[in-house]
Amino acid sequence: MKRLLCMLIIFSTIAMVACSPKIDNSVDNNEQDNTGENRWMSTIEENIFIEGMEELITLNIYSHKNFLTYVPEDLLIHTESKGMDDYYCFFANYGGIKNENVYLKLSFYSESIERPDPFIEGNFKKVDDFNKIYSWSLEEYKGLNGLYGILIEREGTYITMLISSPGEFEEGFIPRVNKIIDNFYFTDTNQYLAK
């Protein structure tokens, strides 16, 4: 009986792994496989941990200019361009209520900007390399009231990320931000941000 139960568990596990959806992230979202279908799915489900509890969330693909990523469905996206610079803001929208104090703001600077210093204002303090959260960042800054800044250099241009997650929102928002970052893919160079 135990042997039969073990075999059942093994076969079930193999079947689940074999049938689980796989994403080939080595191509941009417009490239098609030999069947003519896009390799990037429009929606995926992944787990996050909030206060030690696992929660399954739905992520929708977001593609704009030279990048794509997956964004949790409970975030709203606002885009803006100023001159040659582009800005993307992902706001918390829990329960259908937009919270403009809880967001991830990405700023893509044009090649004409030598090196932005967006974290000089606002009482930001530079995080030493040993305490940085993201190993791929150029510099990181910690601010007051749940603000965290990240400076990235890529292909001779700069990108900044500003995370705003005041106390009571930090546990739920940061895992969502990390899903955006983990899936962030540059389609012009076929590279992930975080890998």
Automatic annotation (TrEMBL):
Annotated signal peptide: 1-17
Domain of life: Bacteria
Keyword Signal tagged: yes
Keywords: Signal
Protein name: Lipoprotein
Organism the protein comes from: Serpentinicella alkaliphila
